[in-house]
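Notes, p. 3: input format for complexes.
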Amino acid sequence: MSVATNPSAPATSAPSEHAVSLTLSNIIQDYPAPGGGVTRVIGGVDLNFERPGINMLLGPSGSGKSTLLNMMGGVRPLNVKTPTSGLVSIDGQPCHGPHDDAVMVFQRYANRPDLTIYENVAFPFRFKLWRERVPEQEWRARVEHMLEAVGLADKKALHPAQLSGGQNQRVALARALVLRPRILLMDEPFGALDAQTREEMQHLLIKLYRERPCLIVFVTHDVTEALMLGDRVVVLSTQPATVADDFTLHAPRPRSLDWQRSPEAVALSERVLEQLHRVSAGKGSLRVTV
Ligand SMILES: Nc1ncnc2c1ncn2[C@@H]1O[C@H](COP(=O)(O)OP(=O)(O)OP(=O)(O)O)[C@@H](O)[C@H]1O
Ligand SMILES: [Mg+2]
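Output follows (290 residues plus adenosine-5'-triphosphate):
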């Protein structure tokens, strides 16, 4: 997880989580090509996320999902300007770097091995910005609450090496949500977990989201995961990426196995798979699970 912190920002309290928007306007991204010149990876993406919701982002491997997500989180590579052109804005304001209300969670959960589970969840409060935003008594209460919420209260004195992969991802999720972010950016967060643990994490995310809704953009390769979690599903094409499909889902969560087998869900799954196969035909590689 990376926590977007800007120590020079004023210690304001965050606006309501219900008033949030994240907009990508005509995003183009060129990267240096191995043999010289440049490769256009993203070829004009416009996306607008207006309110709390779970937005799933799918696309072939190498289509630029992480590039887009990192851009939204203000995480910039060292070797190249991102975006090449276009604009990311949050709440209507241009955003050129890390934003204090946007927090990222990655597949590699980045827990500090030398710290206890409690200290890992409380880690953001080592930063001045968050200490100024949240009084100690409150952040300590939040850490305890998050440890409870992710089912690790009895493990708080242990270290990451003493936990399973799924439990470590719970720590990363707790560390992100303890900040009560208005925007949560997740890059294949459950991609390395076995099927059962992944399903448990999906249920946990739904529970935590219900407790405190925020604007989530969630990258996945798993079509079932996209349909089980998403209020909206966006499919990217590749080389260069554009938005190939974009639809909303209204079925209430958690979505049962029966729903998963319903004609609606089967049709949507086929629609996404068809798009993925179509856009990756002959270009890049397709890594899809269902
Ligand atoms: N900093 C960089 N410099 C040069 N090329 C890059 C850089 N970052 C990404 N790329 C290239 O841009 C393309 C898109 O990469 P990105 O990681 O965004 O794809 P992705 O959709 O997240 O892929 P995956 O599904 O495998 O995670 C790839 O071809 C990658 O090699
Ligand atoms: Mg990626």
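The pocket of adenosine-5'-triphosphate (ligand 1) is lined by residues 31-32, 41, 59, 61-67, 77, 79-80 (CB under 6 Å).
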